Amino acid sequence: MFIKIKKNCGIQMEHNGLEKGRLVPVTSNFLLNLSQVAEASFYTIKDRKVRQDLEGHDIELPLQTRVIHLQMTYLYATYKETINGNKGRLVERQYYKLYFSPENVDTYEELRGVVDQQVANP
Known about the structure:
The chain has one helix at about 105-115, and strands at about 1-5, 10-15, 25, 30-35, 35-45, 50, 60, 65-70, 75-85, 85-95, 95-100. It is mostly beta strands. It has one domain (about 1-115).
């Protein structure tokens, strides 16, 4: 099953394809395959968090910002053969963090509901 992340819904996103700590608005629709998600977590920001936009300007996330963190399976990973000059293998799985402002709770609840439907909780 796919979930559609819609553009212009006030969602901000962070993922591995960006520099660490960068946050971008979702400006085009895209689909995420829920069968390729290995881990999902949901949380609310309780402490001051600062990220940066693509130009390097600070963005302070409001308290009570809700986050959906989707960690993809190992099929969607990058491998590094050397780590700080040492031989070894580092597997970095792809992830998507979707940030929903406190005013955008309806969109958050809609997406969380779709993910929750895929979870068996006997």
